[in-house]
């Protein structure tokens, strides 16, 4: 159990590395999912294009939304965007930075799916088999004398390996398949998509900080601050709720079973000091908030009017002197 707790704390402290790992796993999952997916072209002119385009765009959209769902910063971004201004103004550049960071990670898996699909070529062949100019690929007498509708229906059956008609004309399928896969891999953004994604990533990761280093550092710092502040607020609320529950339960048992407490006090007097020390510690964690209405007011004020990001040293000194 301790090992799992240490691992969870490590992942929390290294959230950026953890999210990069999640994105890498999703990218591998998208490639693996495509490899095990059984592609079955309808081989019908009215369905080939719709089926192929659905296979090309629907899974990447699902991976993209899944990337947003698995990113914890989405809730931070939504909370920061929707909160009232109050005592702390909202910086649009920080919101844009957080949104761009989430989007970049979420686009990795869809980009891998697009690349694998186009490099494989079967989806592209199924979608555009009816658009093949068969006269440019060879002098195939089988297409002579056919009407345009019959020609399209015959071309739509090229992606189907089990088609009986093309068993006698294997050279037609072989030439058309090679031609369409060449277009899919080279001209239809197969390698071009990979090159464009790599170049775009280079621009984002390398050139942007060079021109706006100060603004980049500022937005990066405050985006980290918002995330850390939210985590610490949640941890403080958990500690307060735990202490509040302990004090409430202790007071309940003290009021109900006073005689049993006095009996145990006579027999286990050695533990009384430890219990008192623990009760004092729980009382301190309550931070003076001991009623449900007061806690609801604190939570409401935190949402509607967060404290301004301007720490005053005189106030901090007064608080420290008051505690002493």
Automatic annotation (TrEMBL):
The principal localisation class reads: membrane
Q: How does it sit in the membrane?
A: Multi-pass membrane protein
Keyword vocabulary terms for this entry: Ion channel, Ion transport, Membrane, Transmembrane, Transmembrane helix, Transport
Q: Where are the transmembrane segments?
A: 21-37, 49-69, 188-207
| GO CC annotations on file | plasma membrane
What the entry lists under InterPro entries is as follows: CALHM
| Tree of life domain | Eukaryota
A Pfam family this chain is assigned to: Ca_hom_mod
* One Gene Ontology MF term: monoatomic cation channel activity
Protein name in the entry: Uncharacterized protein
Write down the species.
Periophthalmus magnuspinnatus
The organism that produces this protein has a lineage beginning with: Eukaryota, Metazoa, Chordata, Craniata, Vertebrata
């Amino acid at each position: 159990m301790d090992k799992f707790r240490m691992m969870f704390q490590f992942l929390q402290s290294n959230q950026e590395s953890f999210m990069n790992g999640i994105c890498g796993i999703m990218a591998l999952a998208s490639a693996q999912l495509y490899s095990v997916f059984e592609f079955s072209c309808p081989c019908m002119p009215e369905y080939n294009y719709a089926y192929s385009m659905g296979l090309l765009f629907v899974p990447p959209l699902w991976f993209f939304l899944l990337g947003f769902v698995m990113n914890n910063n989405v809730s931070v971004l939504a909370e920061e965007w929707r909160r009232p201004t109050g005592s702390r103004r909202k910086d649009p550049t920080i919101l844009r930075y957080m949104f761009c960071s989430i989007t970049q990670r979420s686009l990795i898996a869809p980009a891998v799916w697009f690349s694998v699909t186009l490099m494989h070529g079967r989806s592209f062949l199924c979608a555009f088999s009816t658009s093949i100019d068969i006269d440019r690929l060879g002098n195939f007498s089988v297409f002579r004398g056919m009407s345009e509708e019959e020609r399209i229906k015959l071309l739509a059956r090229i992606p189907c390996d089990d088609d009986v008609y093309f068993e006698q004309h294997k050279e037609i399928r072989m030439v058309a398949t090679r031609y369409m896969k060449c277009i899919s891999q080279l001209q239809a953004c197969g390698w071009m998509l990979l090159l464009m994604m790599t170049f775009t990533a280079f621009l984002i990761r390398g050139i942007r900080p060079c021109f706006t280093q100060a603004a980049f550092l500022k937005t990066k710092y405050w985006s980290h601050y918002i995330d850390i502040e939210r985590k610490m607020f949640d941890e403080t609320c958990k500690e307060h709720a735990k202490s509040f529950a302990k004090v409430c339960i202790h007071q309940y048992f003290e009021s109900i079973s006073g005689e049993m407490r006095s009996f145990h006090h006579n027999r286990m007097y050695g533990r009384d000091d430890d219990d008192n020390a623990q009760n004092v510690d729980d009382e301190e964690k309550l931070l003076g908030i001991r009623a449900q209405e007061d806690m609801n007011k604190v939570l409401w004020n935190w949402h509607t009017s967060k404290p301004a990001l301007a720490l005053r040293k005189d106030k901090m000194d007064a608080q420290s002197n008051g505690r002493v």
